[in-house]
Specification:
The complex is a heterodimer. By secondary structure, chain A is mainly beta. Chain A has 4 helices and 21 strands. In chain B, a hairpin with a 5-residue loop joins strand 6 and strand 7. The chains are: A mainly beta, B alpha+beta. Chains A and B meet through strand 1, strand 2, strand 19, strand 20 and strand 21 of A and helix 1, helix 2, strand 4, strand 5 and strand 6 of B.
Chain lengths: 476, 253
């Protein structure tokens, strides 16, 4: 279990830090759980859809549907650890009772050299503490707290500035019940709070896209088919952005009910996920469907009013991986684990784009936020028995919008075209276990970002960046 | 495996050389200016980071009951903060109960005292203190986990004598000639958690993440601990100066 957690942390945080590994287009997931977490981070980065050329922070009501895919995160790893540990506790029923602590520490420091703008340093820090209590051979409790920081860095796909950074607090607690040898039920409650700085003018705790979420999750693990463990889960979360406000709407109706402009990002999220392993644990497959039911945001109509039905987004992810032993000697094993993943977002929200305040002829884009995003990663790893390893992880991802046209350098829509973003990441590095439970990684990654969107005054869409980084992990 | 490391280092150097922008000097100047600007805009945070460097939250070794020590770099040298810190074990780990330690310490800035003495009718002081409690449990013969709470305080006290100054500014509610003391500071309450990996009987690697709940201050510390000298790094990811090397001297008994 600990090796799985370590691998997940190394992969999610380290192998492709430039690729924003846990996010869409990033490094391959180490586990289905990491790829399809039971409690997911909300997508909250409509900065890509800045409506006006003059006010980067003044998003319109139409920007509430987000461009960024729903993302797995470091915080999800904490929940996965808790769930997996609980499952292990149930599986190891009767072997030990009492409190068993677990801990994960991650630190990475990287130097990013994009070909636009200057170079910069960024780092990630993560700390997870938790424990499980085996009550009886069938019953166990678990809890975990994770604190994570993500500093400036090159992001996969769009919607983020290089200098963006965040602090996450995540607390989860739950119960696992081994009903029968082939049937384990686990329940979890999770609270998460994220402070996000999208610009230098925000301080932690006052960010426009700060949010907290509170949710419940149920999961069933089935061992009814020999050699093919299956699992399925259902989760609910209330996600609230306490500081979010629609500045344009407040500006337009300042004397009426400007407070109505708040809460446009808040939503209920219901998520179903299923996963399975096959081929002697070498193959994995997963499916997840999330429904984001926005509480206040309404669909913008072609008449320029937010008078439509409430916004509802669906995010679907389908993925699979296969771990293949390519070569093996007495001292070294070479493995490759291709991962194919397709993420789709379908939203009933539209986009009304004002190029400037007072624009009397805004552009109306129906289905502006719908996209399909396939990605393929083929991480290859050479592992020596002394604990050292090399890795090479190429990843290619597309983000194809269904109806959103790209913009030219003058911020005009290129009519007749659809926005298409491409990400190529080549990550490689060396990892060594240097003390018990600890490993050190030195890595390099090159990221090539392409888009037919040429308007890059506020956010980068086309660039090539190099990342040199080192990371330390301690996991128990 | 050393040849692999050397080969990787060479690859990195080649890629670095090809990837680095030609105006790298200008970039370094830009970063330097940004750092200095950030320090100028929030000098208290910079001073507070130096103050935090001197705090040692690592748990006492299992066979030691106390510790007295000081931070040599960067607090004492070059920032002239004369500091002393200590730890005491309240409870030895046994029977399922964790080891409980308290830690405490303080410092006073020589530079602050000297500078204030150079100005007539002005006295100033820059000092700080901290105290905390931590619990450590052995998860494995080579690994201990710990966590705790710490109160940290940095103070700036200024005493001004206005007796020879103008007695009135001409306003109807003039309190300026009564101003004599100005006491300001920076307070933080830290929660921290970490792991201690035994490298040998006397040497440890300690990793720790601390979070200040007052100002959302995050810090990470890596410490290579030995019998009398600890060295390591402290990271303040949101500060003007992110990475501080630290060097402590201590006696454990």
């Amino acid at each position: 279990m600990r090796s799985v957690v370590l691998t997940a942390l190394v992969l999610v945080h380290g192998m492709a830090m430039a690729a924003d590994a846990g996010k869409q287009g990033g490094a391959a997931p180490a586990t289905p759980a990491a790829a399809a977490p039971a409690v997911e981070k909300p997508a909250a980065a409509p900065a890509a859809d800045v409506a006006t050329a003059t006010a980067p922070v003044a998003t319109t009501a139409t920007a509430t549907a987000t461009a960024a895919p729903v993302q797995a995160s470091a915080a999800d790893v904490a929940a996965d650890i808790a769930a997996d540990e609980a499952a292990d506790a149930a599986a190891e029923a009767g072997t030990k009772r009492g409190l068993v602590p677990f801990y994960a520490f991650h630190f990475s420091e990287g130097l990013s050299l994009p070909n636009i703008g200057g170079f910069f340093f960024g780092n990630k820090i993560g700390s997870t503490v938790g424990g499980k209590v085996v009550l009886t051979p069938e019953q166990s409790l678990f809890g975990a707290y994770e604190l994570s920081y993500e500093g400036p860095g090159m992001r996969a796909q769009e919607g983020h500035e290089f200098r963006e950074r965040s602090i996450d607090h995540s607390i989860s607690a739950g119960h696992a019940w081994k009903v029968s040898p082939a049937y384990v039920v686990s329940s979890r409650i999770q609270y998460m709070n994220e402070f996000r700085r999208t610009g230098a003018n925000e301080s932690f705790g006052n960010g426009l896209y700060d949010y907290w979420s509170l949710g419940l999750a149920e999961r069933v693990d089935l061992g009814i088919v020999p050699g093919v463990p299956l699992g399925a889960g259902l989760a609910y979360a209330y996600v609230r952005f306490p500081n979010y406000t629609d500045l344009l709407q407040e500006f337009m109706s300042a004397s009426v009910n400007s407070e109505l402009s708040g809460g446009q990002q808040d939503y209920h999220r219901i998520r179903f996920d299923a996963d399975g392993r096959f081929g002697g644990d070498r193959g994995r497959g997963w499916l997840s469907v999330s429904m984001l039911d926005f509480i206040k945001a309404r669909v913008v109509t072609g008449f320029g009013t937010a008078a439509g039905p409430r916004q509802v987004d669906y995010v679907t992810e389908l993925g699979g991986s296969w771990k293949a032993a390519v070569a093996q000697t007495d001292s070294m094993a070479m493995t490759a684990e291709p991962v194919l993943r397709v993420t789709m977002r379908n939203s009933n929200q539209n986009f009304l784009r004002f190029r400037h305040f007072g624009d009397t002829l805004p552009s109306f884009i129906k289905g502006n936020y719908n996209y399909v995003s396939p990605s393929l990663g083929v991480p290859v790893r050479w592992e020596w028995k002394n604990g050292r390893s090399l890795f090479f992880a190429p990843t290619y991802a597309l983000l194809a919008y269904g109806s959103r046209p790209p913009r030219d350098t003058a911020n005009e829509y290129r009519v007749g075209k659809k926005q298409l973003n491409q990400t190529l990441i080549l990550a490689m590095g060396y990892t060594s276990k240097f003390y018990a439970y600890s490993s050190w990684t030195f890595g390099y990654a090159v990221q090539v970002q392409k888009s037919n969107n040429r308007f890059e005054k506020f956010l980068p869409y086309n660039y090539t960046g190099h990342l040199f980084y080192t990371s330390l992990d301690i996991t128990y | 495996m050393n040849h692999v490391i050397r080969a990787l280092s060479l690859c990195f150097a080649v890629v670095w050389a090809s990837a680095a922008p030609a105006s790298i000097k200008n970039e370094l100047i830009r970063i330097g200016e940004a750092v200095l600007t950030k320090i100028a805009l929030d000098p208290a945070d910079f001073l507070f980071d130096i103050h935090l460097n001197a705090e040692d939250r690592t748990p006492l070794p299992i066979d030691k009951d106390g510790q007295v020590g000081m931070n040599v770099f960067p607090a004492l040298i070059p920032f002239t903060e004369v500091n002393l810190s200590g730890k005491a074990k309240l409870h030895r780990e046994h029977a399922g109960w964790p080891q409980i330690d308290i830690n405490f310490g303080g410092w006073n800035s020589i530079a602050g005292m000297v500078a204030s003495g150079m100005v007539e009718d002005f006295k100033g002081g820059l000092y700080g203190y901290h105290g905390g409690i931590s619990a450590a449990v052995s998860a494995d013969p080579r690994l201990r986990l710990f966590g705790g709470y710490e109160f940290s305080q940095m103070r700036v006290d200024v005493t001004v004598n206005f007796k020879d100054s103008s007695t009135s500014t001409g306003t109807g509610f003039d309190l300026q000639n009564s101003l004599s003391h100005l006491n300001v500071g920076k307070t933080e309450h830290f929660l921290f958690a970490g792991a201690e990996v035994l490298r040998s009987a006397r040497k440890r690697l300690v990793a720790e993440v601390g979070y200040g709940v007052v100002s959302n201050k995050l810090m990470a510390r890596l410490t290579w601990s030995s019998k009398n000298f600890d060295s390591g790094f402290v990271f303040f990811p949101e500060s003007a100066w992110v990475l501080w090397p630290v060097w402590n001297f201590q006696v454990r008994f």
